[in-house]
Amino acid sequence: MKVSIKRLFDIAVSSIALLMFSPLILIMAIWIRFDSKGPVFFTQSRVGKDRIFFQVFKMRTMIDRSSSHIDQVNERVITGNKDPRITRSGRFLRSTSLDELPQLWNILLGDMSIVGPRPIIPEQLEVVPSAFEKRFQVLPGLTGLAQIRGRRSLGWIDQLQADKEYVEKRNFYYDLNIILRTILVVIRGSGIYGGESENWRAYRDRMKTQDGQD
């Protein structure tokens, strides 16, 4: 797929979507502001194309904590909407994926694309095997192949495998198919929280244990 065509598609879709969802984003912002103390938006460092860091935008769904104060390596995994770290408004926003809407601005800025591998946090870089470096050849996406295959319920390596497969197969119609299937996934609300599969933290710990035994 020509990058210029994909970029034009991203600009057009994100611009239209931002205009359409602006009233909804305003309503969510008011709800968040009155529901708990703290800012309306949450920003966090993510890894983009060519391993370049950028700030991703989200609606805040957890109690007010600066991203710089979150220990991502040892942070307890969120496994359900009963987690006390999640606010009342946050439970709804997460279940509907509405907390991701501000990332349309990331797309407009050129940090992200509509479709691509989901942007990982810097702490995850150490657990991306060299076999999956292809995921950094493209812009990260608002949605992607891993999202329609299970989202967070997928194991870490399965997520990376889906990212690699997307990069190898990507074209305009492939993107459209992923977008349409994403709508169904969001409606069903599936894969929002991690399942039984090995997440990146568990994978990291297992690799360190194996290295220590060698």
Topology (SSEs and partners):
Layout: H1 3-35, E1 41-47, E2 53-59, H2 88-96, H3 103-109, E3 113-115, E4 141-143, H4 145-148, H5 156-169, H6 172-188, H7 200-213
Parallel strand pairs: 3-4
Antiparallel strand pairs: 1-2
Helix pairs in contact: 1-2, 1-3
Folded structure, characterized:
A hairpin with a 5-residue loop joins strand 1 (41-47) and strand 2. This protein has seven helices and four strands, in the order αββααββαααα. With 214 residues, the protein is mainly alpha-helical. A two-stranded antiparallel ribbon has the order 1-2. Strands 3-4 form a two-stranded parallel ribbon.
Proportion of beta-strand residues: 5-15%
Query: Could you say which overall geometry the principal axes of the C-alpha atoms support?
Result: globular
| SS-derived structural category | mainly alpha
Order of helices and strands: HEEHHEEHHHH
Distance between the termini: 44 Å
Largest sheet: 2 strands, antiparallel
Strand ordering within the main sheet: 1-2
Q: What is the CA-atom radius of gyration, in angstroms? A: 17 Å
Secondary structure tally, helices? 7
How many β-strand runs? 4
Average pLDDT reading: 89
User: Helicity, in percent?
Assistant: 40-55%
Low-pLDDT segments, ≥5 res? none
